[in-house]
Amino acid sequence: MRSNVxxxxxxxxxxxxxxxxxxxxxxxxxxDDDYLRSLRRAWDASLKRAxxxxxxxxxxxxxxxxxxxx
Length: 70
Description:
This protein is an alpha+beta fold.
């Protein structure tokens, strides 16, 4: 959802049992839903941990890579 600004709550979730499409459970998540807020916080924290866990750029840098000052 964060990669596409045209997608967002409400989010409708349909859950059905394999081979039994007659037994469907529905869930609608609104913008202010506590579960959706919790999911966003957990996703953000997990992304930060994933990036922090990546190996650093090996220096000195290969001649094929050019560092650019920002």
